[in-house]
């Protein structure tokens, strides 16, 4: 039976490159501070994004990225001012939370090693979520080389 236009596929949306983007619940000091203030004032992500004049997806990425803080190129000083005004939090509190989220390692402090990348499992996941019926040999070889080099570095 043909699918109606109103019926959507139940597959997960995956970018064309096949790379899955991982996000998690707010966990860093910056994310917790902003998200708890947002909940306290009963703002949705869309409302807060409109108040600080960024796109809704940008704010969502700031609050759910795995590394715990927004990219420095995306988070400018005017965003700090607007967040402070919209959520009635002092700029220094936001700045301290942002610095705590970006933990810089000193010469004395050893950084914990990154989690090992299971290259073969990543390869299977990418091919499993790729919606194309056929893939080219060069695509598969290039993907395998990238995953192999990424697994070797860690």
Structure description:
There is one protein chain. This protein is mainly alpha-helical. It folds into 2 domains: 29-101, 434 Repressor (Amino-terminal Domain) (Orthogonal Bundle), CATH 1.10.260.40; 119-153. Helix content is 51%, strand content 0%. The protein is built from 7 helices and no strands. The chain has helices at 29-40, 45-52, 56-64, 77-87, 91-101, 119-129, 137-153. The longest helix has 17 residues, at 137-153. The chain is flat, with a radius of gyration of 20 Å. The model has no long low-confidence stretch (mean pLDDT 83).
Mean pLDDT: 83
> Any idea what the shape is?
flat
Kindly state the number of beta strands: 0
What structural class results from the helix and strand content? mainly alpha
**Tell me, what is the CATH class of the largest domain?**
Mainly Alpha
Number of helices: 7
- Portion of residues in beta strands equals under 5%
Helix content: 40-55%
CATH level-4 homologous superfamily of the largest domain: lambda repressor-like DNA-binding domains
The domain tally reads 2
CATH topology of the largest domain: the name is 434 Repressor (Amino-terminal Domain)
H-E order:
HHHHHHH
Label this structure with key terms:
154 residues; mainly alpha; 434 Repressor (Amino-terminal Domain); 2 domains; 7 helices; 51% helix
What is the topology?
Layout (H helix, E strand, L loop, with lengths): L28 H12 L4 H8 L3 H9 L12 H11 L3 H11 L17 H11 L7 H17 L1
Helix pairs in contact: 1-5, 2-3, 6-7
């Amino acid at each position: 039976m043909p699918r109606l236009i109103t019926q959507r596929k139940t597959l997960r949306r995956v970018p064309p490159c096949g790379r899955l983007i991982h996000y998690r619940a707010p966990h860093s000091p910056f994310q917790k501070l902003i998200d708890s203030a947002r909940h306290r004032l009963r703002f949705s992500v869309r409302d807060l994004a409109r108040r600080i004049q960024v796109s809704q997806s940008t704010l969502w990425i700031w609050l759910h990225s795995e590394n715990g803080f927004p990219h420095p190129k995306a988070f400018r000083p005017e965003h700090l001012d607007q967040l402070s005004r919209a959520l009635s939090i002092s700029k220094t509190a936001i700045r301290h939370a942002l610095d705590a989220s970006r933990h810089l390692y000193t010469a004395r402090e050893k950084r914990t090693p990154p989690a090992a990348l299971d290259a073969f499992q990543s390869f299977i996941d990418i091919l499993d979520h790729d919606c194309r019926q056929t893939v080219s040999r060069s695509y598969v070889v290039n993907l395998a080389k990238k995953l192999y080099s990424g697994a070797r570095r860690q």
